[in-house]
């Protein structure tokens, strides 16, 4: 089934007459629209794409004749949607509870006298299983991401600042026709002990570990990638934690297969670090899903109830962070297969010293 068919199958199972999508991420997932101001109404037999004059031509170019287009200024969209709901006799409308604000919900209730069904969990489930087209785009995006890493290695040396590397990284990604999928993390020395450090003017020094965590958006879908490298040699403990994280990453990859619990994968990864005596220095989850957003279902954490399924795309990204000294994270983005996984990256994991 295609995505619209999946939405309608869910509607039929739950006695929902219509589904209204308003978040840019869900609109993009269903339609491929790359703009940021649109709504989609799906009924049993029709699908409407509502946007304003700024985006109507763009939508038609990107989406062809899949949808019926309605041009409406933002202030009049509720009125236009109201007419469509009435036309189709809508008694139960599926909405995004996690996106609809209190004030918007009040407007819905004032305008539309009907039942509401919350469809967020179903959308997360549908989005977590990638289509063959989405997987193909992720492979291409991953090629660009790895090429960016290999490119930036030529600029890594003592005296170069984190901002210098950020500028070169973003320039390279833009030259490939992409943009970063999130603000890149480029953290050196003591900054690398911060899992989500903010890029600074700090200059690379001998003995530093340098963690670079970034990705790109390729044709509407994200990638994610992390490697840590050393600058002019590193002390024994930092090299040791690097090898522990590498072992944890490899163990996590080998644990992945369709049918395994996400929490089981997290435990495999976490146990490697705990048994090495550094469990207190790995506090974040092992990974997450990736798609039209950089963080999606499933969650690869100790408390996750998600079960991995074929064609989910997830990250495996253990880390150890020693306050005041530095840190290591190694991250791969992989597709879950029936028997294991497909790694989108081939970048080496032995410690690189620049």
UniProtKB/TrEMBL annotation:
The keyword Nucleotide-binding does not apply. Pfam families: Creatinase_N, Peptidase_M24. GO terms for molecular function: aminopeptidase activity; metal ion binding. Keywords: Aminopeptidase, Hydrolase, Metal-binding, Protease. CDD domains: APP-like. Transmembrane segments: none annotated. Residues 4-129 form the Creatinase N-terminal domain. InterPro entries: Creatin/AminoP/Spt16_N (IPR029149), Creatinase/aminopeptidase-like (IPR036005), Creatinase_N (IPR000587), Pept_M24 (IPR000994), Peptidase_M24B (IPR050659), Peptidase_M24B_aminopep-P_CS (IPR001131). The keyword Cell wall biogenesis/degradation does not apply. This is Aminopeptidase P family protein. It comes from Guopingia tenuis.
